[in-house]
Design goal:
With 286 residues, the chain is mainly α. The chain is built from 13 helices and no strands.
């Protein structure tokens, strides 16, 4: 009896140690993520000499020179790059939501010959490195006359396999009784899709929208190839021009990175609740 009581007393102690170890691990992981962002922010408030001489210290003195130079320079029209990035990311996100939702619903709910083969082929494209499609997409965009336009950086990625796969998994998890009840009331497939399925899929759609927006916003390689004019550049290839061939103004580069991060943080803050609902809903279904 005494041994059993002692073992019961040790159980809360083990749980406390496990929780403490978990918290320590989470704090370490959080620091790994936060410290580079903090270093970027602090460097953006330094002078060039201070950034080179003391790269890992607090700004001394605090300087807004990098932001002033970046925001007032005629050679780096960062506001125009921001607008180009926002417009391109928004257009591509809308296109992805439209194409992915329709394709995913057809693969999840409709019956037609070759459905499994088509879905397998779509999933197989996820295994192909994106750089493989670089030359074919460039030739298509060039033949369509879309080089140096917004369509070149929005249309080629508007029908990605990930969006179809992601939404299909969500649609498969929806109770079919809801659609059957709507069909009994006389609703057709299009009306069920628009008025029943899509409202229920708002968390998944919001999550896909955020991921699609971030994917286009952070894209660097493809815009470099298809955007030719400085005034048509998006933010990522535009910021690469802040780094010279023989010298680098680290404070200005970090200031540009901070400005590029602000819209992303705002977007994530606005869509955070929807993302959590989507993840929680997927966990419950699993």
């Amino acid at each position: 009896m005494t041994t059993l009581i002692a073992q019961k007393r040790h159980v809360p102690a083990r749980r406390a140690w496990a929780q403490t170890a978990l918290y320590v691990l989470l704090i370490v992981l959080a620091l790994i993520v936060i410290l580079p962002l903090l270093w970027m922010l602090l460097t953006s408030f330094k002078t060039d000499s201070d950034a080179i001489r003391n790269p890992y210290s607090f700004p001394n003195p605090v300087s807004f020179e990098a932001y002033t130079t970046l925001l007032t320079s005629d050679q780096q029209p960062i506001f125009l790059w921001l607008w180009n990035s926002f417009a391109a990311a928004t257009v591509q996100t809308v296109l992805i939501l439209v194409t992915a939702s329709m394709g995913a619903y057809a693969l999840a709910r409709l019956d037609f010959p070759g459905k499994k083969v088509i879905f397998g082929a779509i999933i197989a494209t996820l295994l192909v490195p994106p750089v493989v499609f670089l030359i074919p997409n460039y030739l298509i965009v060039h033949n369509l006359g879309w080089l140096d336009t917004i369509w070149a950086i929005t249309v080629p990625g508007a029908a990605g396999a990930f969006g179809i796969f992601f939404l299909r998994q969500f649609f498969v998890g929806l109770p079919p009784e809801i659609e059957e009840a709507a069909r009994i009331d006389g609703a057709g497939d299009i009306r069920i899709f628009l008025q029943v399925v899509l409202p229920l899929a708002r968390p998944a759609l919001a999550t896909l929208a955020v991921l699609s927006f971030l994917g286009n916003w952070n894209d660097f390689l493809w815009p470099v190839y298809v955007l030719l004019s400085p005034e048509h550049l998006t933010l990522q290839p535009g910021l690469s021009q802040l780094q010279g061939a023989y010298s680098t103004h680290f404070a200005i580069v970090m200031a540009g990175a901070v400005i590029a991060s602000v819209p992303v943080l705002i977007l994530f803050g606005l869509a955070q609740r929807q993302i959590v609902e989507s993840v929680a809903g997927s966990a419950v279904k699993g």
